[in-house]
Specification:
66% of the residues lie in helices and 0% in strands. It is mainly α.
């Protein structure tokens, strides 16, 4: 499973929207992340607007979910 599939699976499993995932990444990294960036990561890899989903994005989203569960 590649990062794109992992990220997509996390969104589906925890019912997180693309907008909310961008917000979580911004909060937890203190760096900007737009919905457009998320869409480019989740887009069909054969499309020109597609970008590879980085390792850090999957890790940070997982950490944000774990922290959210603890609250």
């Amino acid at each position: 499973m590649d990062n794109r599939e992992k990220f997509k699976a996390l969104l589906e499993q925890y019912n997180i929207s693309q907008a909310r995932s961008a917000e979580l990444l911004c909060i937890h990294t203190q760096r900007p992340c737009s919905v457009r960036t998320i869409r480019s990561w989740l887009n069909d890899p054969n499309k020109p607007s597609s970008r590879p989903c980085p390792d850090w994005a999957v890790t940070v989203l997982e950490e944000a979910i774990v922290k959210g569960k603890k609250l």
